[in-house]
Structures are given as C-alpha cells and as structure tokens.
Amino acid sequence: MCRLRIDWLVRHLLGVLAVVAGGLVVVVIFSLLQGAWPAINSGLLGHFFSDPNWQPGSVRDPQYGLVPMLAGSFLVTVAAALIATPLGVAGAVFHHFYAPRQIAKWNLRAMELLAGMPAVVLGFWGLTVVVPAIARIEPPGQSLLAAALVLALMILPIIALTTQAALAAVPLSQVQAAAGLGIGRAGTILKIALPMARRGIGAGVLLALARAIGETLVVVMLCGNIAQIPGSLFDPIRPVTSTIALEMGYATASHKSLLYAAGLILVLVVGLLVGWLSFRKNLDHDAVN
Amino acid sequence: MRKLLLLSAAVFLSACGKPQDEANRLIITGSSTVAPIVADAAARYEALHPEVRIDVQTGGSSRGITDALSGLADMGMISRDLKEGETELTAHRLAMDGVCVIVHRDNPVSDFTKDQLIAIYTGKVSNWSELGGGSGEILVASKAEGRATLEVFLGYTGLDSADIRADVIVGENQHAIKTVAGNVNAIAYVSIGAAGSESESGTPIKLVSCEGIAPTTEAVAAGTFPITRPLQIVTDAETSEVATAFLNYLKTPAINDLIETHLYVPVAH
Description:
Helix content of chain B: 25-40%
Number of helices of chain A: 11
Low-confidence stretches of chain A: none
CATH class of the largest domain in chain A: Mainly Alpha
Distance between the termini of chain A: 40 Å
Oligomer: heterodimer
C-alpha cells in the first residue's frame, strides 16, 4: 500500500516537473514574441532585409540591416563545423578501432573535459593566443577565422562523443563478419562501420550546429563584431548573437524590440535544425520497423 | 523514500526563506561603470543599517534610465549626462571618469589632437606613419552601439556613430584593452580608471594624452582633461524614505575612498 502511494507520488511529481521544464520553453518564446511585437507590428522588421547597414545608434541615419549578421552567424557556424567534423570523426575512429586502451581512456577524458570547458575560458584563450597569431598573418586578427577555430574546439567534443557512441552501436557481428571475409581494418571502417554509424554521426553534427549558432561569448570576443559580409576568412564578422549580447543592455525602444526579433529568428533557425533532427530520427524508426 | 521527499520539501521551503521587509529593500540598476562603486557603498551601508537590503544590478545606462522611470528600480545608475528628453529624472553626481585613448606600449605615438582622433576614426588616416608612429595599418577599435563610452567619445569628437569606420567593435573595457595589448597597431578608447589599473599591472598598453593633457585622475579632478563623463544616480519623483537615506549617504565623503579605489574621481560635496 505504502509502496503504491510512493509510486503515485513519484509519478505525479515527475509529471509536474516535466511539464514545468517544457512550459519554460513556451514562456521564453512567448516573452521573445512579446518583446519583438512592437517591431513586428510597426513594420520595422522590413528594415532587417532592406537596410544595407547596422547602425541603430546613428542620429543622422539609423539603419537596421540584419542580412550581414545572418550571413555572419551562418558562416561562422558552417566554418566551425567544417573544421570540427573531420577532426571529431577521425578522433572517434582512432579511439574506437586503433587506440591502445590507455590512450583511448585519456582521449575520452580529454574530450569530456573539453566539452565542459567554460566558454569564457576558451574565449579568453582565443583573444590572448589565437587572435595575435592570426594578426601576424593578416590583421586585425579578430575575424571569422579566429571565431571559427575556437568555436570548432567547443563543438569538437559533441561530434567526437556522438560518433564514438554511434560506432559503439554498430553490431559486433557485422565487424566480425567483415574480418571473417578477410576485409582489413581500414576496409571494415570505411565500408561497414562508418556507413552504419552515419545517422548517429549526422545527428552529432546537427547538434553541434545548433550549439554553434547560439554560442555567444566566444564569438563576441573573437569575431571583431563588424556587421559586414566578409571577403575572406581574415575579415571580421558579426553574428546575430554577438549583436544581441553587445547591445541588449543598452538598447531602448524600437532598437530593443528589433533585438528581440533577431533573437526570435535565431530560435526559429535552431528550431528548424532540431525539427530536422527529429524528422531524421523518425525516418530511422520507420526504416527499422 | 518518504523521508527523502520530506527532506527535499523542507529544503525547498527553507530556501524560500522568510519574506523580506519590502520597504527596506532597495533595487538599483544601470551602468556597469557605476555599479562597483555603488555595490561597495551598499555593503558598507548595510553594515551600518542591518535592516536594509540593497540589490545592485548592471545592464547599462539605458537600463538605469528605463528602470528608474518604470519603478522597477528605486534608483538608476548612469555613466553620462541626462539627455534632453529625460526630464522626469533627477541626476545626482557621485564621481567623474575620463575616457582616454590607448595604444600598444611599443607604439611611439604619445599624443593625439581632436582632429587626429576624428581622422583616425573616420578612416581618413589609416597608417601610423602619417601620425609620426611606425609604419603599420592602424587597427581601429570602437565600442558597440549604446555604450556610454562611445557616446562620450562621439560627444567629444562631434561624430555620428554612422561616421565611425572601425576594424573591430568591442564591448567591455577589458575587451578593448586585450585587443590593444594583443596588437601593436591598435587604437581604442576606454575608461581612464580601467586603463590605468591595467597598465599599472603590466598589461602592454599606453594611455595617450589628448591635446597635450595626460590622462590622469588628477587631470580629471582638475577638469582639464577634455573627455570626461559624470557617474551619476538617477531618481524619479517618487523616492522612498529608505532610498533617500541611502542616496544622501552616497553623497557624503564617506564613500570617497571607494571611488578612489576604483580609480574614479570623487565630486566635492
């Protein structure tokens, strides 16, 4: 009897907590909408796509062009993923198939430590080490490249750890069958393990993209924050997150409302990524059934 | 199991605590430049008046204005003068700060005129050789829109924010200082207080004089340094008794040592 009552209690307690957690997302999106409403309602949102520059504080000629910043967010995210994906996948393959046990263990620890590394520490390191190094090649140093490199370091563990999990989930029988057929280790990896793990790896990359596009602290310190479409990797950029972080505390009236709207657009993009992720999961599920 | 649940419930309830006496609770929000002074003064004031609780939150001068007007905060902190439209608020000056130009320690340039600063920040001059420095492309760092430091700089130079041609945009003072410390060709402008303490602790930056006047707290105090800004508290018409009492405390010389610790200049009361 007592046991039953505890079951009832735990079940309902967990239910309430789950609803609270889910509800918080709704609350956040609702308050974003509320903050963005004045801008949406007054048609100011059109400036996002029609103004060429971002100069909200100008008295003479205020402009609110968001396109360079959307480009900045997109470029830094994709560049970081392009750097981190080969490294993460290669690291996971080495970890799973080649590394002696001791090295594999330490490799895993290092990845986990990197995953938990505070963004402010990485940003600070980037600003004092990576930026001056890049500035020696081509100034100013604070650039798309600097932000992408350090951002890649942040998302590398996500890709490496999900790839490791995906490789570990490849049935041993398949690998043994390949060995039985006399296929070498390289062939097993390229033709059997990686193709079978590819959905898991893809999910890891998508998660990493969602993480990277929302990252703020590192990019604000390293990207140079010039709202422009960069001509090269060495040019500064300004992602949407940077703008919100730099200006939210100081913005008033329509400027503030536009920052809310920019945040909303960012949430929408991440929502699309997450939606794609679950769509692919469903595909997998259907394929298995 | 049941014990565990009871325990967690007890912890939860005690964390809620007993309700604070709302009348004795002050909320002060605004400029991150003023906040450290007010936070230190608040700690001292709370020790003298244990019944009072003071929360100091940052978020920029604009937030200080907005919160003081809306009543979200009892007082706001701003690091600039009140603007023309902000007539509903009263400003109370606590201290003065100067904004100075910084370059890398290895840069031979040691003085700028106002016209030179305008030429650099509008992109008309782009190489240090034109200013008597070495030969390198100038890396112009400017502050993000809305920062009080930017507004003070624009006020001094008479520029509009759309005129500024920067190579990088920075946020906090620290960000500006690290940018200059990491690049021998960089130039930025920051609070004298922040730049002075960093330079003393060995960061390779140099505080450059302006129109021949060295950026020191003494020059700010004497009123001779050309780029200065007031650090102020703003209040609206409805200020509670507790808030007025704390405000009066802030205006006494009792907190001058705190202001000087943060390298700002106390205002003679």
